[in-house]
UniProtKB/TrEMBL annotation:
Residues 83-254 form the PRELI/MSF1 domain. It comes from the Eukaryota. GO terms for cellular component: mitochondrial intermembrane space. It holds the Pfam family PRELI. Coiled coil: none annotated. This is PRELI/MSF1 domain-containing protein. Residues 19-45 are annotated as: Disordered.
Amino acid sequence: MDGAALAVTCAAAAADAGAGGRAHPHHQPVPGRQQQSRDSPPAVPGTCTQLSGHLQGGGPIPAEQHLHIPRLLRTGHRQEGDMKIWSSEHVFSHPWDTVIKAAMRKYPNPMNPCVVGVDVMDRSLDSQGRLHSYRLLSTEWRLPSLVRAILGTGRTLTYIKEHSVVDPVEKKMVLCSKNISLTNLVSVDERLVYTPHPGNSEETVLTQEAIITVKGISLSSYLEGLMASTISSNARKGWDAIEWIIQNSESTVS
């Protein structure tokens, strides 16, 4: 899970300039053992929706201060029917292997405090040597009164299912995530693809796409726009988290 599905739980806080997620202790699974969330999580059905699309939008991106600023190639969002689609493409200045190791250990991190639990549901190798991982993420959100009134819910603990496939031969990682809470109100389907930069093996390209759909409530376009903005913000936090993990790993080794 990166910026998109996490927006289901964090977008509401962005609607209130003074509201922010409370800090919560992080829960990290013991390697090789399934962990229990504080509440009994719902069953995780199947794999996440496979998304496809072409990156659109773009234009100059203002420089911002990050731990290590990736080269942002393109970002934007568009409307297609009753769905809003957000997409981006950017480059990490690290080899693919380094970025993938960090992406697999992304949570917990100080940039995404909304994620309070990570449960590994299953992990296995297929006949082609690809690593499949199924995880359940527990997230907390804080709802401003306006969003709470629109959604008609005060729920704070939500769940997101995540399926990733790492192909060490093709050097490609595909990660899909989807919320499995509040699905009668909103759905966020996200797809991330990590591949080596075609022109520089010391760099890694990450392409992201998220489909946001708010269902059967008033001000749906407002909420979809709010979530698209929050997805963009959370994606940047996700890039920073990967850089933070890489830097901390390097400092530990040295």
